[in-house]
Structures are given as structure tokens and as C-alpha cells.
Design goal:
single chain; mainly alpha
Length: 165
């Protein structure tokens, strides 16, 4: 299998659908099985992961010569959302984690405005403050795992945007 076929737009977009949803699934396992309650910034990152997955699904629906604009739109949305996710993860680590409360923060307002916290509280309701939710896995803060995944998704999106046809 050639490198071009291995990293085909369809495969990358499929990864853009599956990988963010797997990240949200892992976050739910750590929440509901291991008791690591999310803060508003954690929940916002979950919402961004789901949105990236939907954008990649849009791009995947745009496969084919006539629908390349749809694929481009999906990749562009993925890139913008990934940049938002990068910002959220960095803000969570460097600002919100040192705050005693993150109630009524930008993340809290976005999640409340979208309404997913009341629609699906088991997934999108924040249950901890930012300082209390500072969890680590293997000594690495959770938000750095999200940050890494957002960077990878942004790179995939940029690669898709630069690819011809």
C-alpha cells in the first residue's frame, strides 16, 4: 500500500470522526468509572471533540469530484475547531487550573448556551471546579492529552486543506 493510499483523505476524515469520539469515550470512562469529575473547560473540550467529529463526518460525506467543496468545508471546520480546542486546553492549564472557581467562565457560558449540559448531563455537565479537576494520567495533566490530540487533528485538517482533489 502506497503512502498516499495510507493517508488518503477518506481515511484521515474517518480518523477525524472516530478518534475524537474515542477521546470523549475515554473521558467518560475516567469520569463514571474512576470518579474524575469534569470542570467546565473539560466539558467544553468534549463538546469541541464532538464538533470536530461532526465536521469530519461532513468532509467524509463530501468525497468525490463534485463534492470536494464539502470535503474542504469539513476540513476547514475541523481546523478551526481544533484551534479552539488547543486554546481551551492551554487556557485550562495555564489560567483556569489556578483559579478557585470557574463558574460563569467562558467555557461554562458556552456549554450552558449550547444547552448540552441539560440535554445530556452525564456527558456534558461540569461537576467540579477547575482547580479541583486537575487530574493527571502517568504524571501528565489531562488537558495536555487533549492538547496533543487537538494538535494532531489540526495537522490532519491542514493536510486535507492543502491536498489537491
Amino acid at each position: 500500500m502506497s503512502l498516499g493510499a495510507l493517508f488518503s483523505p477518506a481515511r484521515l476524515l474517518a480518523a477525524g470522526v472516530v478518534v475524537p469520539l474515542a477521546a470523549v469515550g475515554l473521558a467518560l470512562v475516567t469520569q463514571h468509572v474512576f470518579g474524575m469529575q469534569p470542570c467546565p473547560w473539560c466539558v467544553l473540550q468534549r463538546l469541541i471533540f464532538v464538533a470536530i467529529s461532526l465536521a469530519a463526518l461532513l468532509g467524509l460525506a463530501g468525497q468525490g469530484a463534485r463534492l470536494s467543496v464539502v470535503r474542504y468545508l469539513g476540513a476547514a471546520l475541523m481546523a478551526l475547531l481544533a484551534l479552539g480546542g488547543i486554546s481551551a486546553a492551554l487556557w485550562q492549564h495555564f489560567v483556569a487550573a489556578s483559579s478557585t472557581s470557574c463558574d460563569l467562565s467562558l467555557a461554562d457560558r458556552i456549554v450552558s448556551t449550547v444547552g448540552v449540559d441539560t440535554l445530556w448531563p452525564a456527558v456534558f455537565a461540569p461537576y467540579a471546579s477547575c482547580a479541583d479537576a486537575a487530574a493527571t494520567l502517568l504524571g501528565v495533566p489531562y488537558e495536555f492529552y487533549s492538547l496533543t490530540l487537538f494538535v494532531v487533528l489540526a495537522a490532519i485538517a491542514v493536510w486535507l486543506l492543502r491536498r489537491r482533489a
